[in-house]
């Protein structure tokens, strides 16, 4: 693997007329007599100094940071030593810019295919309390080790011209609380916001360091219990404030250094580089004690808070980032089985092992069905409340088993997501939906996508290519995403929604109300409609609690001029009640069951007559 100096040296070949300045000693070795490697190194050093730049090499395991000799010229501050490690450099980066740098390095989905992962960042660098800082541009690449973990970064820093200063971001993260889908880092050197994509990289780095150096680390997953009840009882604005207050208390209770990642609106992940099995339990106890009752809102209403925490010891209980996250979820689920705030360390389970074996069996069924093309679509109508006409059909995935029986998606989608097969299913659904829409220009169809599909560019690229010459198809397509998907990585989801709008498609939030909904999220996402979760609709005529909550959801959607669809509408009484509150459309058995065959197209004459 070539170093920055190697590459720069290669670029300098043939410049025999250039000679860097050297001391005028009679005993100096003639330049032409120097070994070729030394000539190249000297040329590189001189070139960097002349350009006001400096090169570095940063090893992630040891955090050791090495610089070229041009640092004094680059820094322009006598006596200011070059940072000796990554944490020292982090301390010198302006606190508001640290997130930008980390995001530039580790925020993408690109992996190291052998030539490293390129990155470019621009930020402000300080020289100390009484010294002026300056703007720098960093260009580099980071490389992985033999098992795919980030290992070393090599790059060049140069001073940025004033004209190159970046414009202020249109959406700046709140400094105090991580917005959903972001990573929040605390070290002795300070704090800054980072992308959630960095969580796996950070976990992988901790696991790798623990394995290599025989140390221990820990991963905690903290969940706020009963947020739906808080939404219901106090409103969404108070729930937002409660989350902010809880995360603030959690940060105060955590030791440093620590890396914090917002999983979703009500889950926070914490990586403790110095954590042990025993210390994880103590830290969890401190977190729970710090956030039991919090004053929230204008009147500082005390709201009781219940936290559940799952913990995983690294590397003993997880030898990869993926395993650490999966097992932390299992531990969190175990903690939530108790009535109130509790901590549960990960423990092996025979029942979970049986579940894994069932999942493997399901994986075989899914892959075989994909290969045999035994997946098909069932179409369920979504009916307009005012006219009673079908506004669109939701496309529901069905699996035809080898014995001819049909299995609904609910029986296999969870396993597919855990096994990494959901994206394959999403591609198959897209293929089937587009095939139908190309043949039937009289129907509007909707489809659901999984979390990984939203975060991956492959699916959206396929859609863009398919409708490039058929924009009419895109205009009749509605893509449904869940609230959990939306807030898992808000930046990626906003980009996903914007891309769909660019090609003419519409976007809906599915199961609206089941997750954590906020004014901020709806404003950022800019979706076209919301589909109210059927769990709140199914018995709405007889449940006062559901009536209050659903009306709150309808009002929230109305604030953003969003169309509303009520799911699981089963009776005329429910439909009439929902229509009186302003719900725009219904979906449920009362208006139509899923059917593998679409209704035949209406004739032009019949269509015209039906509009009278």
TrEMBL record:
InterPro entries listed in its UniProt record: Cyclic-di-GMP_PDE-like, EAL_dom, EAL_sf, GGDEF_dom, Nucleotide_cyclase, Rev_trsase/Diguanyl_cyclase
GO MF terms, alphabetically ordered: cyclic-guanylate-specific phosphodiesterase activity
Classification via PROSITE patterns: EAL, GGDEF
Gene3D superfamilies: 3.30.70.270, EAL domain (3.20.20.450)
Membrane spanning stretches: none
Coiled coil spans: none
Matching SUPFAM superfamilies: EAL domain-like, Nucleotide cyclase
Stated name of the protein: Diguanylate cyclase/phosphodiesterase (GGDEF & EAL domains) with PAS/PAC sensor(S)
Organism ancestry: unclassified sequences, metagenomes, ecological metagenomes
């Amino acid at each position: 693997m070539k170093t920055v100096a190697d590459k720069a040296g290669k670029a300098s070949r043939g410049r025999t007329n250039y000679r860097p300045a050297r001391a005028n000693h009679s005993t100096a070795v003639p330049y032409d007599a120097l070994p070729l490697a030394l000539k190249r190194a000297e040329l590189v050093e001189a070139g960097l100094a002349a350009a006001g730049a400096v090169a570095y090499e940063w090893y992630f395991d040891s955090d050791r940071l090495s610089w070229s000799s041009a640092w004094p010229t680059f820094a322009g501050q006598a006596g200011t030593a070059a940072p000796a490690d990554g944490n020292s450099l982090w301390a010198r980066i302006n606190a508001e810019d640290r997130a930008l740098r980390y995001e530039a390095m580790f925020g993408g989905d690109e992996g190291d295919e052998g030539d490293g992962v390129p990155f470019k960042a621009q930020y402000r660098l300080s020289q100390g309390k009484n010294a002026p800082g300056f703007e720098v541009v960093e260009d580099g690449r980071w490389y992985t080790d033999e098992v795919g973990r980030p290992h070393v970064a090599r790059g060049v820093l140069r001073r940025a011209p004033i004209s190159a200063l970046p414009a202020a971001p249109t959406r700046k993260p709140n400094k105090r609380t991580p917005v959903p889908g972001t990573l929040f880092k605390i070290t002795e050197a300070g704090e800054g916001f980072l992308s959630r994509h960095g969580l796996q990289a950070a976990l992988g780095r901790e696991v790798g360091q623990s394995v290599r150096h025989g140390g221990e680390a820990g991963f905690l997953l903290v969940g706020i219990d009963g947020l739906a009840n808080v939404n219901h009882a106090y409103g969404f604005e108070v729930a937002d404030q409660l989350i902010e207050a809880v995360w603030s208390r959690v940060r105060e209770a955590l030791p440093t250094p620590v890396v914090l990642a917002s999983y979703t609106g009500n889950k926070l992940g914490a990586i403790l580089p110095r954590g042990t099995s025993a210390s994880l339990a103590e830290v969890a106890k401190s977190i729970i004690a710090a956030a039991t009752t919090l004053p929230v809102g204008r009147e500082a209403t005390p709201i009781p808070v219940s936290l559940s925490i799952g913990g995983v010891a690294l590397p003993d209980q997880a030898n990869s980032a993926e395993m650490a996250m999966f097992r932390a979820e299992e531990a969190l689920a175990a903690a939530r089985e108790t009535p109130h705030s509790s901590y549960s360390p990960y423990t092996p389970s025979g029942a979970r092992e049986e579940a894994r074996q069932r999942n493997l069996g399901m994986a075989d069924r899914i892959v075989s069905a994909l290969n045999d093309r035994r997946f098909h679509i069932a179409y369920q109508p979504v009916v307009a409340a005012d006219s009673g006409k079908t506004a669109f059909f939701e496309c529901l995935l069905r699996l035809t088993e080898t014995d001819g029986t049909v299995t609904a998606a609910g029986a296999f989608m969870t396993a597919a997501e855990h096994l990494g097969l959901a994206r394959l299913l999403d591609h198959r659904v897209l293929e089937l939906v587009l095939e139908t829409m190309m043949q039937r220009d009289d129907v509007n169809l909707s489809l659901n996508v999984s979390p990984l599909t939203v975060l991956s560019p492959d699916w959206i690229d396929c859609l863009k290519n398919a409708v490039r010459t058929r924009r009419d198809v895109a205009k009749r397509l509605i893509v449904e995403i869940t609230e959990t998907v939306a807030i898992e990585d808000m930046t990626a989801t906003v980009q996903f929604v914007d891309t769909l709008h660019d090609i003419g498609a519409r976007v809906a939030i599915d199961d609206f109300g089941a997750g954590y909904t906020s004014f901020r999220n709806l404003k950022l996402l800019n979706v076209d409609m919301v589909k109210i979760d059927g769990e709140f609709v199914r018995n709405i005529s007889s449940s006062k609690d559901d009536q209050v909550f659903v009306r709150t959801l309808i009002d929230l959607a109305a604030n953003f001029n969003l169309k509303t669809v009520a799911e699981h509408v089963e009776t005329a009484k429910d439909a009439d009640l929902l229509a009186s509150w302003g719900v725009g459309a219904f979906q449920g058995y009362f208006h139509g069951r899923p059917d593998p065959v679409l209704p035949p197209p209406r004739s032009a004459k019949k269509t015209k007559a039906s509009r009278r």
